[in-house]
Specification:
Helix content is 32%, strand content 23%. The protein contains nine helices and eleven strands. A hairpin with a 5-residue loop joins strand 9 and strand 10. Helix 1 crosses helix 3. It is globular, with a radius of gyration of 20 Å.
Length: 281
Amino acid sequence: MKILTLNAGSSSLKYQLIDMEGRNALASGNFERIGSDNSFVTHKVNGEKIKLQKAVKDHQEALEFVMSLLTDEKYNTIKSLKEIDAIGHRIVHGGAKYNQSVIIDEEVLETIKECSLLAPLHNPAAYKVIKACQSLIPDIPMVAVFDTAFHQTLPKERYLYPIPYKYYEKYGIRKYGFHGISHIYVSNRLSEIMGTPLEKLKVISCHIGQGASICAIEHGKSVEISMGLTPVGGVAMGSRSGDIDPSVITFLMKNENMTPDEMDTMLNNESGILRIIRSFC
């Protein structure tokens, strides 16, 4: 069985084709700067890393090019897309509806689309990639793996914010948490290494990268997570601010005449460790 995994970012598409029998990656890569004239893909196959310049306007074109690489005779990966048995999609936001991975149908697709309000940089891209897959390989089973699903075990007193309850009812504003896929893996791997059932462990899992989060896992269930409504919350990250005094936001918006979109860009792309480094250089 061959499984293709896809992870769509706002301007990127990571992929990996896995042979489940041998538990090895047949090919993998990352398409970056999607939507720009200088977009490119780094394709890894047969122990080689190949960088290819390819201008694509959207995620569908990027996916089509990735599929052409997988079936290219030069790389001898697969002869046809029909060799792919299933596709797994990493989805950033599933809201409060899903607490596990699910087979993608029209209802799931609609939920992913609705959650774009909460994850505007990632969910729209994932939606487009899923639709493109449906077009390129009709009827292939696809699974949505939600980053938020693992944290649906948070108790209500921890996921609700101390603001008027009507905003939770109206907009679903609450702590959702992210990096659930990573935290599940880390806690299960720790259980294997220690030789102790996960149900008997209390774990602090740290996901450290461009995005970062810290999760408290008790008896295999997430009970606290540093990220909140969106992936910008929690500890300071590569270019994301993490948690700051909320009044900083309203102060800057008033005194700098910043729009919500400008503030969102600042918090996600111009803050965090990036800002600290630039301050000292």
